[in-house]
Amino acid sequence: MIFHDTSSNHVVLPPNEEVNWRVSAYGITKRADKILMLQAPWDKRWQLPGGGIELDEAIADGLSREYYEETGYKTKVIGSTPFYVGESYFYDDIWAKKFYHSINLFYRVELTEDEPSQEVIPTVEGVKEIEKLEWVSIQDLNRENCHPIIYEAIKLLK
Questions:
Q1: Vertex 61, ends 25 and 34: CA angle to 5°?
Q2: Would residue 144 count as lying in a domain?
Q3: Nearest-CA neighbor of 119 among 61, 73, 75?
Q4: In the chain, where do the E strands start and end?
Q5: What is the CATH number of the domain that holds 55?
Q6: What is the DSSP letter of 112?
Q7: Is residue 52 part of a domain?
Q8: 27: pLDDT strictly greater than 70
Q9: Model pTM?
Q10: Kind of pairing, strands 98-111 and 84-92?
């Protein structure tokens, strides 16, 4: 298995190191030909709102929570089946300092409010999680400017 850190550098799994299982869900919201995308301070490639689902959460609830925490928008997940499922191996070198084998579920979501909450400050343990939030044209998204996990789902929409 090849693991990648948050900057997509290869990371070797040390001997006897535990690999953690993770289910992640990401939401795609479209307006005309644009998708709501974000960038993290440590990675200037476009990503989708979403992240890890807690063990005690339904996937749709976890996705709605992650989407709100990262964007300030409340959402409704459309359908119970993801339109794309991916798999990744990564090393979280920002917070947990752990290795993960992740199943990545991609859903279409719709916004339930026109404007994001101004009360949401996207930070995790005091670290700024989101640098930029923007509606980006689907045609402007490509393999070079999207996180590789995300691009596989985005290209299905082109």
A1: 55
A2: yes
A3: 73
A4: 3-4, 10-11, 19-28, 30-31, 34-40, 43-47, 50-52, 75-78, 84-92, 98-111, 123-124, 127-128, 132-137
A5: 3.90.79.10
A6: S
A7: yes
A8: yes
A9: 0.94
A10: antiparallel
